Automatic annotation (TrEMBL):
This is Transcriptional regulator. Coiled coil: none annotated. InterPro entries: ArsR-like_HTH, HTH_ArsR_DNA-bd_dom, WH-like_DNA-bd_sf, WH_DNA-bd_sf. It comes from Leptospira bandrabouensis. GO terms for molecular function: DNA-binding transcription factor activity. NCBIfam families: HTH_metalloreg. Pfam families: HTH_20. Residues 1-96 form the HTH arsR-type domain.
Length: 113
């Protein structure tokens, strides 16, 4: 198995747009054609394709051409990388909050000079 690396900045940038997040949410239900993905959005197809290009360049999605239809698939691997990063951040902040709580309990009732 080839281990791939994902640029977390690119992934978060791709997900910073509500249209792209909706596309990802739709693809979490299963593959879809580009035209089916574009239907709920009131924008021109070239504009919608720019969103797909960003999602594809971030490796959140990949596409395959089947005949004349381009099918989009969700790539779950970048989400695992993001989940690991978020878990590290959560652990770090939980530790800091626990340290702050301990400090505040120790200093409770003491006057500041």
């Amino acid at each position: 198995m080839v281990k791939r690396s994902y640029n977390i900045d690119v992934v978060f940038h791709a997900l910073s747009d509500p249209t792209r997040r909706q596309v990802v949410e739709r693809l979490s239900q299963g593959p879809a054609s580009v035209s089916d993905l574009a239907k709920p959005f009131s924008m021109a197809m070239p504009s919608f394709m720019q969103h797909l290009d960003i999602l594809e360049s971030s490796q959140l999605i990949y596409t395959k051409k089947v005949g004349r239809v381009r099918i989009c698939y969700l790539n779950h691997n970048p989400f695992s990388v993001m989940e690991s990063w978020l878990q590290i951040q959560k652990s770090l902040w939980n530790t800091r909050l626990n340290q702050l709580d301990t400090f505040l309990l120790k200093t409770k009732g003491k006057k500041y000079e």
